[in-house]
Design brief:
MPAB; 65% helix; 14 helices; oxidoreductase activity; mainly alpha
């Protein structure tokens, strides 16, 4: 489990090869807690801009019926190994549940690899643009090693050896596969509206959407079928985010970790079990329920 305090200053003393799990946890729960969570949300949008990925997600029907549960389950399953360790009891259970779900579908290794790469690259890019500081070279190696370890436990093949390899793989994949499909827009809009709902009443979504879209690049907007926001708004949003970064440098460091797993969730008022997270194909879900009953 993470320390009850936030010893961010320990990161330079830790090994990026041997202590990458601890470094990744400190980055996620202490050093850049809000920023990495936002960056991973935008990483999800990049994966939704791939028709083979968005098409599978759309066919499950989860984004139409239970968008909040789908989002919560993804966060909780990914936070368990991050906050507790890849080979901890919680980490193994969450990764096993992820693998169990993936085994129910035909998912190309290249698609899995691209999603993994998005989780590596987008937080680094976000912090370069909007963080109180960028990740150090030491932190980038540890961050990459954490996701290499996660990918290996998920059975993903041909995982790049380093950050440069992930960047090259992701760029080549996007050139070949990132293009518009109706499922991209459907899944992306459902997720965007869900995220806006965490901060705004629904009647303000029309104002909030262009602000969020201002943080997306043109190829992503095109592939999602989203109209680009006005240039003045984009410049204003990016400027405001950079002012925030300057303000953060003047504020005290976080004293306690911000744990995703500990956050109250409307869908799980009594808590949750890892085995109950995620989705089942309908036929398999019926068989599972019959076995229970």
């Amino acid at each position: 489990m993470p320390s009850p305090s936030c010893p961010e200053d320990r990161i330079p003393e830790l090994s990026a090869q041997d202590d990458f799990e601890e470094i990744a946890c400190l980055l996620t729960t202490c050093a850049f807690a809000w920023d990495i969570e936002r960056a991973l949300e935008f990483a999800l949008f990049r994966t939704y801009a791939i028709p083979s990925i968005s098409g599978l997600l759309a066919r499950t029907g989860e984004f139409e019926r239970r968008a909040e549960k789908r989002y919560d389950d993804t966060e909780l399953l990914l936070s368990a190994p991050m906050e507790n360790g890849l080979d901890s009891a919680f980490g193994r259970a969450a990764i096993g549940r992820i693998n169990e779900m993936h085994d129910c579908y035909r998912i190309a290794n290249d698609d899995m690899l691209y999603v993994l790469g998005s989780f590596v690259l987008e937080p680094i890019r976000w912090l370069d643009r909007f963080g109180r500081r960028p990740m150090t070279a030491h932190e980038k190696v540890a961050w990459t090693n954490y996701y290499r370890g996660l990918g290996a436990r998920m059975g993903i093949a041909e995982i790049p050896d380093d950050l440069a390899g992930f960047a090259a793989m992701s760029a080549a994949y996007e050139r070949q596969h990132m293009r518009f499909a109706p499922s991209n827009r459907a899944v992306g809009k459902a997720t965007l509206d869900l995220l806006l709902g965490f901060y705004l009443p629904r009647w303000l979504f029309g104002l909030g959407r262009p602000v969020a879209l201002s943080l997306m690049d043109a190829p992503l907007l095109d592939a999602m079928g989203f109209a680009p926001p006005p240039g003045w708004l984009r410049r204003g949003v990016i400027g405001a985010m950079r002012l925030r970064a300057h303000a953060l440098r003047l504020l005290p460091r976080r004293r306690r970790p911000r744990l995703i797993s500990a956050r109250p969730r409307r869908g799980y008022p009594q808590g949750y079990e890892i085995a109950g997270l995620g989705v089942w194909p309908r036929a398999r879900g019926r068989a599972r329920d019959a076995a229970k009953g």
